[in-house]
Design a protein that fits this description.
Elements (H helix, E strand, L loop, with lengths): L1 E5 L3 H12 L3 E6 L2 H10 L1 E5 L2 E5 L3 E3 L11 E4 L6 H7 L9 E4 L7 H4 L8 E6 L4 E4 L2 E4 L5 E5 L5 H13 L4 E3 L3 H22 L3 H5 L4 H18 L6 H9 L13 H8 L10 H11 L4 H16 L4
Bound molecules: nicotinamide-adenine-dinucleotide (NAD) and 2-oxidanylidene-2-phenylazanyl-ethanoic acid.
The site of 2-oxidanylidene-2-phenylazanyl-ethanoic acid has 12 residues, from helix 6.
Length: 312
């Protein structure tokens, strides 16, 4: 399949690499000139489960995307605050038959995608894969993961299943979800607990899990997400979600991962996605008259840290 990865940082590179290895015709599109040039000149360098490899993948700077052959599938993997500009820039690639799959962390990205793509071509999902960007053109990938996705448009279930099949044939372990809003909230609970706390406490997920207050903090935050989700008709199984979140503490599986928010702020001095995770719950809580004090506080703390560190 002709696939464009829009946002080829850590996760976009992982998906691009695996889909390329699975025999698809993959093109990367990205907005970081140094990264684009490094991949153009030297290929994408990846440490994949300990094995060093270099793959030649076509890559284009998003501001230079021109009218041409439309792509069959676009996978969106920008950071949340880069999504609108990316969709604006890749308009020339989006045709009447281009399906667009949004796999960003956080809640409510479909509102932005809908501005550029007809509803019947939009697919949303989430992923438990992880990835780290070590520098321009270089990624570190370890562990396993999965993808869940669903169509937003009516009668597009078969297309959603077909997209999941294409991803799975490249080892991405994707499945059709009949309730993607539930899955997105469930994954948002992972990010709403791990990302902010690991960033503030300067540790990875296993390190957080070793601290005594971790369980109570996780449980309180998950309950705030559940309160807001419930108001939107999504009824989270709170004990199951807490267990799912706390599985991330395991150092033998995924616990050594530093969440992407940590990588952004602590390693790369970049602004974070907090407004699309805990901040989204905060805003919705305010709108619905629901108390979300931990999410409010976490959002403020991360913003203060961004200011102190002069993140950009
Ligand atoms: P990323 O920051 O690695 O890449 C996103 C974009 O930012 C890319 O266009 C990249 O080129 C650009 N970028 C990265 N570093 C830059 C720098 N120093 N200067 C300028 N531009 C730079 O983002 P990601 O981790 O791939 O995340 C994409 C989405 O996937 C996010 O919504 C994230 O929350 C989600 N996600 C991430 C992980 C993970 O383990 N990284 C796991 C699951 C979901
Ligand atoms: C993650 N991490 O989503 C993925 O780093 O933003 C991130 C992220 C899967 C399971 C646990 C954490």
């Amino acid at each position: 399949m002709k696939i464009t990865i829009a946002g080829a940082g850590a996760m976009g590179s992982r998906f691009g690499l695996m889909l390329h290895q699975g025999g698809n015709e993959v093109t990367l599109v990205d907005g970081w000139p140094a990264h684009v040039n490094a991949i153009k000149e030297h290929g994408l360098h990846a440490n994949l489960n300990g094995e060093e490899l270099t793959v030649q993948l076509p890559i284009e700077l998003q501001s230079e995307v021109k009218e041409g052959e439309k792509t069959e599938l676009i996978i969106l993997f920008t950071k949340a605050m880069q999504l609108d500009q990316m969709l604006q820039d890749i308009k020339p690639l989006i045709g009447a038959h281009t399906n667009v799959l949004c796999l960003l962390n956080g809640i409510g990205h479909e509102d932005i995608v809908e501005k550029y793509v007809p509803m019947e071509n939009i697919f949303i999902g989430n992923t438990m894969w992880t990835a780290g960007l070590e520098g321009a053109g270089k990624v570190k990938l370890f562990g396993n993961g999965s993808v869940e996705l669903q169509n937003l448009g009516k009668n597009q279930e078969q297309v959603a299943s077909d997209i999941a099949k294409v991803l799975s044939e490249s080892g991405l372990n994707a499945s059709y979800s009949s309730n993607i809003h539930y899955s997105i909230y469930r994954k948002a609970c992972v990010n709403g607990t791990m990302n902010g706390l690991c960033t503030l406490l300067d540790t990875n997920m296993a390190g957080l899990g070793e601290t005594h207050p971790a369980h109570e903090m996780v449980a309180t935050i998950v309950n705030e997400f559940a309160l807001v989700a419930n108001h939107e008709g999504v009824s989270l199984d709170v004990p199951e979600v807490i267990e799912h979140v706390e599985e991330c503490f395991d150092p033998t599986t995924i616990g050594k991962h530093y969440p992407s928010m940590y990588q952004d702020l602590m390693t790369n001095n970049r602004l974070t996605e907090i407004d699309y995770i805990n901040g989204a719950i905060s805003r919705k809580g305010k709108k619905y008259g629901l108390a979300t004090p931990y999410c409010n506080f976490l959002t403020q703390l991360i913003h203060s840290k961004e200011e102190i560190l002069k993140a950009k």
